[in-house]
Amino acid sequence: MRVIIIGAGLGGLALARFLRRADIDVSVHERDEALEQRPQGARIHLDERGIGALHACLTASESEFLDATLGQPDEHVTVLDQTDLAIVKRRKSTGREGHPDAIRPGASASRRIVRRLLAHGVRDTIRFGSTLTDYTEHTAGVTVRFADGTVDEADLLVGADGIGSAVRRLRLPDATVNDSGLRLLQAKTPITPELVATGVLDRIGGSFTLTAIGDVQVIMGAVRFGEQPATAAERLVPGFDPGDRQDYVMWGLLLRRRQLGDLGRDFTRRSPASLSAHLRNVTATAHPVFRLLLDQAFPDQFHGLAMGTSREIPAWTPSRVTLLGDAIHAMLPTRASGANSALQDARRLADAILSTHTGAQTWEHAIGDYENLLRRDGFQAVRASLNGVHELDEHLTTATASAVS
Questions:
Q1: Where is the FAD-binding domain (predicted)?
Q2: Any idea which fold 2-404 has?
Q3: For the purposes of burial, counting CB atoms within 10 Å of the CB of 96, is it exposed (0-12), middle (13-18) or buried (19 or more)?
């Protein structure tokens, strides 16, 4: 049996790890030229779906490394006044398991470390700079063609290639993406003695934190590792480079389209230097903490993200081409479900593939059952993320109240 995965994000790499553990031939094709060709987010919230899937696909020592380096429990939303960054609101953000309109209990993690850890065990399966152009389904499987002229064969093709999925456009052309109008300009700053001295980290704690600069919303979240990643790697996964080597703050501007100005053109393709310059302008009259965050930020970790959500579509007939994660159910980060949903998809799809490998189910039934869950839980998470947008507006009002009173 052979599986081709398009996309080396968290979901695609997790699926590759599951299949490698089951001795199933797998090939991962990633259009970027390297794993970290571009910044892709700094901090993720992992709940029982994500952590459970990671434990199931990683080795025992890698799972121990993951647990050792997880950040603080991440179960609150905190709003800071924009004038003095005092706490004006803090509430528990998590809810009971399975409740779609509440964030599930979990902990913060470095997306970079999790992605590197997943890739660590399947590096030999990843082909970088490989872009899918089209495919043809036939009785025995799928013929897949790539931009460099390469042709490959597989029993199953999996689109794990994110919100702009080439596989989705070919497989389900009606499954379009709606532009939410929200843009995130994100940065990453190491936690230094100077930053600790400001006291702002005590207010952030392990929470997802919001404040404002004028009428622009600011988001912040700290990643404070339980054990420093380099030390944990040396102890548990010798030879693994975690990339991140110290605690840090993920922060950025959550912008509406009308607030982009000249930045709107090619926002997601802007250089880190261009985005840093924009942040310098925005923070010129803001609380001094933001200048410190900017001055000490990692210079190559500024990036812009356009936020879209997948349009829910009716059930489709299962075939030898399927999807996972943002490729089919892209969502806003308001419920912290994106990474967790993708990892859950990978685990479920691996189970479906194994059931066909052992002869327990036909391809049609196994993929059909998987896609039923994909639609049910994935689109529910999309709806829940959209429901969270009005809360962002309420938090912005709270953060700016003193400035307008």
A1: 2-169, 315-359
A2: FAD/NAD(P)-binding domain (3.50.50)
A3: exposed
